[in-house]
Amino acid sequence: MIVAAFSVKPYDQQFLEAAAKAAGAPVEWRWFSEPLRAETARLAEGATAVCCFVNDTLDAACIETLATIGVKLICCGVPALIRSICRRPRPTASR
User: Fold this and answer.
1) pTM (global) more than 0.85
2) Residue 28 sits in which domain range?
3) CATH code for the domain of 88
4) What is the distance between the alpha carbons of residues 45 and 57, in angstroms, rounded to a whole number?
């Protein structure tokens, strides 16, 4: 699975790589220090999933762009954001 991770700090990268390895998940990471928003969403082109953080902006335009480029899963840890995304038909959101 190809995962585009946005707003990534070095410690996030270390943690996510270790967690994927411990889970035995075959992940190809694409790391971006830029925040995820409508203007940067196309950086995820070719990715199956995106990983985002609290400073990212997943408004309707961003989510629509992600869906258009084929992203199937949005992983984030903000419950209110997950509920907002889940009201839309695609992509799926997970914590």
Assistant:
1) no
2) 2-94
3) 3.40.50.720
4) 17
